[in-house]
Write a structure and sequence with these properties.
GO terms for molecular function: G protein-coupled receptor activity. InterPro entries: GPCR_Rhodpsn_7TM. This is G-protein coupled receptors family 1 profile domain-containing protein. The chain crosses the membrane at residues 16-37, 58-80, 92-117, 129-148, 168-196, 217-240, 246-269. Keywords: Membrane, Transmembrane, Transmembrane helix. The chain has one domain (14-301): Rhodopsin 7-helix transmembrane proteins (Rhopdopsin 7-helix transmembrane proteins), CATH 1.20.1070.10. The radius of gyration is 21 Å and the shape is globular. It has helices spanning 14-46, 52-81, 87-120, 132-148, 168-202, 205-227, 229-239, 245-254, 257-270, 278-287, 292-301. The longest helix has 35 residues, at 168-202. The protein is mostly helical. Residues 1-9 and 279-308 have low confidence and may be disordered. Helix content is 74%, strand content 0%.
Length: 308
């Protein structure tokens, strides 16, 4: 459906996609609010910087919440009016959607890479105050990619993303997801192999902590990456101008998977309640990656005889 479509036309399958998308969006929103609130309370009460196993899900939850809000505007408008947003407003909404998508996917790659460098290469990158050195390249990269397709955003069948004749935005999106997925898988495998090998060689207790921390961080990242796999199918179908209800449905539901999945993971790892006691706080600091870099250096440079 093009931008010049008759506004009274109801897209086929709207009565199926909208209810299911709404249900998943509600679960996603509740999950994201819970995660953001809980980690914010932890940061507020401990008066300390969040460690990586708290920062990673927090960053993803914040990114996912922004993306959810844009999708909410898209979905509510389509539900109320029975057709997507029209004209220039739709192009702006499409550009914002792509920008937030780019930030979310690029964040996954950046966190995978920093974890790999920290564990496998013993390279600690100073991310600066509030990790601005992490976010600045992500924002600039996403902005550049967004500007490349600035004339191609518009009305799709159920939402505002890219116009029906546009293949540039879909192609960039597919390439970005595939590249970040490959980077993430490589970093994930190499990181866990490095920690596992160090644990087998030296048996140091710090190695066990590293393994837990690395596994938790990489699982958070993988959940977000897997969120975008069904979207790749939708984008490839869009490139070849193939439309099918199940493709739209899979893409619509999958974008809620990241928030729900990471919230479930966080509860599994951290249980239902934050721990603030001095003993729990110290254990949490160690198991959350405060000493992660130090432990890797120790386990890779000492033996069983001289390791404490």
């Amino acid at each position: 459906m093009s931008d010049n479509s008759v506004t009274g036309f109801q897209p086929p399958g709207l009565d199926i996609i909208v209810p299911l998308a709404t249900i998943f969006s509600i679960f996603n929103a509740v999950s994201l609010i819970y995660l953001l609130t809980r980690i914010s309370i932890l940061w507020w009460k401990t008066k300390r910087s969040l460690t990586m196993v708290h920062r990673v899900p927090f960053y993803f939850a914040f990114s996912e919440f922004l993306f959810f809000f844009v999708n909410l505007v898209n979905g509510v408008y389509t539900t109320v009016h029975q057709f997507p947003i029209q004209g220039e407003a739709c192009k702006i909404m499409g550009g914002i959607t792509f920008f937030l998508f780019g930030c979310n996917v690029t964040l996954s790659g950046a966190l995978s890479l920093t974890t790999y460098l920290r564990i496998c290469r013993e390279i600690v990158i100073d991310l600066g105050t509030y990790d601005y050195k992490l976010f600045l390249p992500i924002i600039l990269t996403s902005l550049i990619l967004t500007l490349i397709g600035d004339k191609n955003y518009g009305q799709s069948q159920f939402w505002c993303f890219s116009s029906p004749t546009d293949t540039i935005t879909a192609s960039i999106s597919v390439l970005l997801i595939i590249i970040i997925l490959l980077i993430t898988l490589y970093c994930y495998i190499m990181t866990l192999m490095e920690v596992y090998n160090a644990l087998n060689r030296f048996g140091a207790k710090f190695g066990q902590v590293d393994f837990i921390v690395a596994r938790r961080i990489t699982f958070y990242i993988l959940i977000v990456i897997l969120e975008w796999v069904p979207v790749v199918i939708y984008l490839v179908a869009k490139i070849f101008h193939y439309e099918n209800l199940w493709i739209y449905l899979a893409a619509t539901l999958s974008v809620s998977f990241g928030g729900i999945g990471n919230t479930i993971l966080y509860i599994i790892y951290e249980k239902w309640r934050n721990r603030y006691s001095p003993t729990a706080s110290e254990n949490n600091r160690r198991s959350s990656g405060i000493e992660m870099t130090r432990s890797v250096v120790i386990t890779s440079s000492c033996t069983n005889e001289n390791c404490s």
